[in-house]
Here is the input.
Amino acid sequence: QLQASGGGLVQAGGSLRLSCAASVRTFRTYDMGWLRQAPGKERELVAGISSGGSTYYADSVKGRFTISRDNAKNTVYLQMNSLNPGDTAVYYCAAKRTVSYAYWGQGTLVTVSS
Here is the structure.
């Protein structure tokens, strides 16, 4: 089970940190990701971090977002800086061991006002 939190309303240029707590003993063996879905748009992968710590970022968030994980706390984070209205979306954390994300959190809404 994945529990995401940290969403909210922020002004453009502001920051938020999302957290996702996993209730699984083998958390360290999963690749984790943050995906988002804006109204009327397809879900997109924003950032990912492998079990080994390698990271991936979508071009639209490079230099602004940072994904990290704390295996001792079974938690993955997404630090989001310099937010803009285009970042408004429901953000989901997800986990996978193979190609596709198979486990999903409930989503947390991020709204960036201009």
